Amino acid sequence: MAHKELLARHRAVMPKWLALYYDEPIEIASASGRRVTDREGTTYLDFFAGILTNAIGYDVAEISDAIRSQLDTGVLHSSTLYLIKNQIELAEKIAELSGIPDAKVFFTNSGTEANETALMLATQARRSEQVLALRNSYHGRAFATIAITGNRGWSASALSPIKVSWVHGGYRYRSPFKSFTDADYIKACVDDLREIIETTTSGDVACMIAEPIQGVGGFTSPPDGLFRAFKDVLDEYGILFISDEVQTGWGRTGEHFWGIQAHDVVPDAMTFAKGLGNGLAIGGVVARGDLMDTINANSISTFGGNPVSTAGALATVNYLLDHDLQANAAKLGSRLLGGLRELAEKHPVIGDVRGKGLMVGVEFVGPEGEPNAAAASTVLAESKARGLLVGKGGLYGNVIRLAPPMTLTEDELEEALGILAQAVEKA
User: Fold this and answer.
1) What are 255-311's pLDDT values in tens digits?
2) What Gene3D superfamilies is this protein classified in (predicted)?
3) Is the N or C terminus of the chain more exposed, i.e. has fewer CB atoms within 10 Å?
4) CA 383 remoteness from chain centre
């Protein structure tokens, strides 16, 4: 079926607010390694991986075999009313990897559900509906997670079950503190945090939730150490800290397994999803045992942590650890950042190149430094025309997001840099 016909059917039955890339959207019909092939037979190098979700790549034997092995048992589902060995083994591994003392794990189907759960835990534990969140953040598309999303383009409703106060820090490039040194930037943001607590809340705040690197916000991040300084203030008030690792987890940043570790912080809870399942629907929360057990009502999860998703996720985690993909992300990420910064020196339309590991953002600007969404859209389309899929985001839609599978090779990286150089010429 041609893409044009499929698009017409999509528009007839799917919500108009369901975003699609490109003027002529594509269907990915098959894939292997880091390459995908669309329904009309065109093959692309994938540098967005289903929004960082196909973290290991496509058609990975070890992961596919683990899923098939579970399918062969005939048990696709049992719900958490029964013991699930795969779920327990995966929880044990995540609890150990988290570094959180006496950690316990609850599995969900997505990052949105994971963040909703974390908010429920924190508000219940603190008996407060007050939450601190960062400007330019994104945490999901459900009722409470939309409320803590500090990006107007993704805030579908102003209604909220919680009271949110907004803190500076996550998006440095357009911050009022942009010109500050790292130390002065951190101090200014900490001063802002303290003032926010003292002037916009009643003091008994439930939690702060933050992405170590803002994903939808355009792969933006503060200087290392900001969240350590934030945590010191939060501890003074007894406020819990939740790290949203939905995009930064599993070694993608290269230097650490979890994004928050760059700040020398052990959070009270972390949420995760995306790359864990390498395409399977799975997310969750890992938290201090006392925090996780704060819920005093009965609960289950019908689909969260089901036998198939946890079989695949366990194989995914084992694969990335056995093959040290964190080290590969560090090595190739350094080359990716370097290559893009060389490109930025030649093209003033690139205002900023930032990120860590294989999580890199390129912000496009106009002559006066204003956001240039048209340039980003041009690069998105021109990259596709040359066989490269990339992402787009940022508060103003002017950031190209690059997050290829962590199994990326050096040759594939150089191929992508070459295509991006040609695409930027057209911007």
Assistant:
1) 999 999 999 999 999 999 999 999 999 999 999 999 999 999 999 999 999 999 999
2) Aspartate Aminotransferase, domain 1, Type I PLP-dependent aspartate aminotransferase-like (Major domain)
3) N
4) 22
